[in-house]
Each structure stands twice: as structure tokens, then as C-alpha cells.
Design goal:
By secondary structure, this protein is of the alpha+beta class. Helices cover about 20% and strands about 30% of the residues. It is globular and about 85 Å long.
């Protein structure tokens, strides 16, 4: 052979695709059955599922007693914030909503004042009805013994399980709240891509105890004492820049590179980062990753400054191809709405990006195709018809055959749309509104408890032993 062929890098977490199912390999491990204590088989599959990123699917089967069990574990990194999803169930069809829940999810049925604590159940892909059925099975499991030893308690549990079963008959609406500190839970929106009026989603910052539960510790918590200073010539991943050796002016002209792993195939690659200034706006940090192994290209934009004093709402009328070339900076906290398509894209769905109106519409389409792919085969005819109609309208808009009004609502004020009038005159197709954030928006951004003046006084008081 003239040259040896280079071995292909196999993806650790391949995408879950029915057409490629024969190529997906599972790992089989002999393990003990918790039911009969004989040996059974555990099968592991590492794959990618939309909304849940990389996952590890585990299935156990015992040939001796027939016991079976399956669970799902996140294989990727933790989300930066926890998530709280509250869903009002008011019709039978809502019981079929698909749910992805992790080990760290607590599930609460508000009307019954009943809560399933976090870590009490394994992560799974299920439905609203499946959650209720699992609770009923768990309560009924020890009832035969309980009826003999504690008949009064058994009678109360029987009444409660009957109440749970009545929920599936939808005699009256009920509300389910899922709180997940890992941020890796999801409840299907049957009206996608429109917003779901029965669902309220909020994110929250984890406290110290919750971070410890996830295995997240700060450097100070990991080390009881200050780490020893490494020699300057020691090769490390990140090196300290001596103070004053790199002025800010030089940073603007440099493209920084640091090693990372590809979010798709996990191969080694590099991320490029550059600080730049958007005319008539502000400084931003642009990060781009290119993977030579799988060809993935990603870009992300972070605002260079802090949160603005006011939020911003930007409405841009797209009336022709010229509007497609407008530069758009969408921050991670920006909510996107397309009026004519009744399409809502929540904050964080597309991440922070610097693109154009056309690129934004294309990204929305790609995100929807990827996100609904997990449940496409099991969707009913009505849902498929609605999604096909929406994609047809979106394709017409991307082709420039449909007029649109794109609304960007960013409570941090860090989003921007380019004006096509360079002479400073008003752009009739672009409307910008500034507004004061609500208390809930400030709470979401962590601003209500933030102290920006004399913030060192509390630390000095503690150091000196002063108390109120």
C-alpha cells in the first residue's frame, strides 16, 4: 500500500436515527438482578436525543425471573441553570405529552399537594400519564403486606391511589410542576412551534448545596489550602498572563485560540475567540469552533459589557431580500417571536449568535427539525399536518416570498439589529423600544439580590466580628 488509510474517529454519542439503527452498537455487561439476585444483562447505549443532548440509555433484563428495568442518564455537561416547568393538564390529550426527566427532577401535583422528591426515581423518557402510572405502581407495591401490618395506612394509600387514577379520567384539570436542578428536563409542547399557554418555564440559579449535589465545586472548595505555584516552564492548558504584559488595545487585534472538544463527535479541536466592536452598539466576544473530524461549525456571541440599565424590544419588518442581509446580534437571554407564523422561540433556544435575518430564520428551521425528530414517528396526524404547514410557510419566508415581522425581546438589552440607513435617519422598517424590567425579570437575571455599591462592607464587618 502506498499510504495507510487514517482510521475514522467514531462518535462517542452517535445521533439516534431509525435509519442508522443497525449501526448503533450497544455494550452488554453481566450484572446482578436486584429481584432474584441471579445474573442478568445490562445493555448500555450512548446516543444523542434532541432536548437532552448526549445521553446514556440503560436497559436491564433478567432471564431467570423476567425482571426488566430501564433508565436514562445525561452524558453531557450540566446546564448552567436549573429549570422549573409547570404544566396545566386540562384535556385527555395532554396526558400524552412526552416528558424527559433526569434523576434530579422533583415532580409535584399541585392540587393533591403531592411531591415526588428528586433522586427518588431514575431518569426516564415517559409521558404525563406514565408519571402517574409509575406513582400508582410504587404505592401499590407493598400494599399486600401493609394491609396486614398497618391496615389504616393501607386504606389511606388506597384512597390516594384512587384519586391519582381519577386524574387520568380528566374529571377536573390539574397542574404538574417539574423542578430539575440539573436543567436537563423537558415537557413536550403539542402546539409547537407556537407558544404553549398551559406551560410556564423558568430558570433559576442553583445554590451551593444544589451544586454540591450535582458534583459541582469551586476551586476554593476543592482545595483546603492554596494550591502550590507551578513552575513557569511547566506546560499547562491555561497559562496566567502577567499583569500589564497584554494591554486591552492589543487584545482587540488578536484572535485567541484554546483547545476544546467538539460538541458533536468529541474529537479534539480548537475554539477561536476575538473581542470586537459592533458599530453603533458595543463590544462583543465572538467564539467560533471548527471540527476537522466531523466538519461541525459553530459560533457563539457573548456581550462584552454587563447587563444594560433597560431591556430592549426590537421589531423589524422583513419586506424583501434587502432586509435579509441585516446584521443581528441575539443574546442568550433574548426571546424571539415571528408574528405572521405565530412562532415563539424562548430565551436560550438558539444561544447567543451574530448572524443575519436570513441566518436567524434558517437557524430556527434547523432547530425545529432537530428538536421534533425524536418524537416525529409517534406524532398524531394533526400534529404532523400542523408542522408540515408551518415548515411550508417558513420555507416561503426564507425564500423571500412571505412578509414577516420579527420581534426580539431582550431583558438584558444586549441584542441588536442593524439599521439600513447609514446617514442616521430613522429606519421605517426598524422599531426599537426601551423598557424597565419587571421584578420577575430581574429575579431571573439574578439582579434583585445583587449589591453594586459598598459591596466590600459586609466582608469587612464579618472580618472584624461586627454583628447587627
Amino acid at each position: 500500500m502506498a499510504a495507510a488509510e487514517s482510521a475514522e474517529v467514531v462518535e462517542i454519542f452517535p445521533k439516534l436515527n431509525v435509519d442508522d439503527e443497525p449501526e448503533l452498537s450497544t455494550t452488554e455487561i453481566e450484572s446482578m438482578c436486584v429481584n432474584c439476585y441471579e445474573n442478568g444483562t445490562t445493555r448500555l447505549l450512548l446516543t444523542q436525543i434532541p432536548f437532552y443532548k448526549e445521553v446514556i440509555i440503560m436497559s436491564f433484563c433478567c432471564e431467570n425471573c423476567g425482571y426488566q428495568n430501564n433508565e436514562i442518564q445525561p452524558g453531557g455537561e450540566m446546564a448552567p441553570k436549573g429549570i422549573r416547568i409547570q404544566v396545566k393538564i386540562d384535556k385527555l390529550k395532554d396526558l400524552n405529552r412526552r416528558v424527559v426527566k433526569s434523576d434530579y427532577s422533583s415532580v409535584r401535583i399541585e392540587e393533591l399537594d403531592f411531591e415526588i422528591p428528586a433522586k427518588s426515581q431514575k431518569g426516564e423518557v415517559t409521558t404525563i400519564e406514565g408519571i402517574i402510572d409509575r406513582v400508582v405502581r410504587g404505592l401499590d407495591q407493598d400494599q399486600p403486606v401493609r394491609r396486614i401490618q398497618h391496615p389504616e395506612a393501607a386504606e389511606q394509600i388506597d384512597k390516594f391511589t384512587d384519586t391519582l387514577k381519577e386524574l387520568k379520567e380528566m374529571k377536573k384539570p390539574f397542574t404538574i410542576t417539574i423542578k430539575d436542578i440539573s436543567g436537563n428536563s423537558f415537557v413536550e409542547n403539542p402546539l409547537a412551534p407556537q407558544s404553549d399557554p398551559n406551560t410556564t418555564i423558568s430558570h433559576f440559579v442553583r445554590d451551593k448545596e444544589q451544586n454540591h449535589m450535582l458534583g459541582i465545586f469551586t476551586q476554593e472548595e476543592m482545595n483546603d489550602k492554596k494550591p502550590e505555584k507551578k513552575p513557569e516552564n511547566e506546560d499547562g492548558l491555561l497559562k496566567m498572563i502577567p499583569e500589564g504584559s497584554w494591554p486591552l488595545e492589543e487584545l482587540h487585534g488578536e484572535v485567541l485560540q484554546f483547545p476544546t472538544n467538539c460538541p458533536e463527535c468529541k474529537a479534539d479541536c480548537e475554539t477561536n475567540m476575538k473581542v470586537t466592536t459592533i458599530p453603533h452598539f458595543k463590544e462583543v466576544v465572538i467564539m467560533a469552533t471548527v471540527c476537522d473530524n466531523c466538519g461541525l461549525r459553530t459560533n457563539e456571541v457573548k456581550p462584552g459589557g454587563g447587563i444594560e440599565e433597560k431591556g430592549v424590544k426590537i421589531e423589524v419588518s422583513v419586506r424583501g431580500r434587502v432586509d435579509f442581509s441585516r446584521d443581528v446580534l441575539k443574546s442568550e437571554s433574548c426571546h424571539l417571536h415571528i408574528r405572521e407564523l405565530e412562532c415563539d422561540v424562548g430565551a436560550g433556544a438558539l444561544g447567543g449568535r451574530f448572524t443575519t435575518i436570513e441566518g436567524l430564520l434558517t437557524a430556527i428551521r434547523e432547530q425545529l427539525v432537530e428538536s421534533i425528530g425524536m418524537f416525529m414517528d409517534s406524532n398524531d396526524a394533526e400534529t404532523k399536518e400542523r408542522m408540515d404547514k408551518f415548515f411550508g410557510q417558513l420555507d416561503d419566508a426564507i425564500a423571500g416570498n412571505k412578509k414577516l415581522t420579527v420581534v426580539l425581546d431582550d431583558p438584558t438589552g444586549n441584542s441588536y439589529v442593524q439599521s439600513l440607513n447609514d446617514d442616521g435617519s430613522p429606519d421605517e422598517a426598524l422599531r426599537i423600544f426601551r423598557y424597565h424590567r419587571s421584578h420577575d425579570q430581574n429575579e431571573e437575571l439574578g439582579l434583585n439580590d445583587m449589591k453594586t455599591e459598598n459591596y466590600g462592607e459586609d466582608a469587612e464587618d464579618v472580618k472584624e466580628g461586627k454583628t447587627e
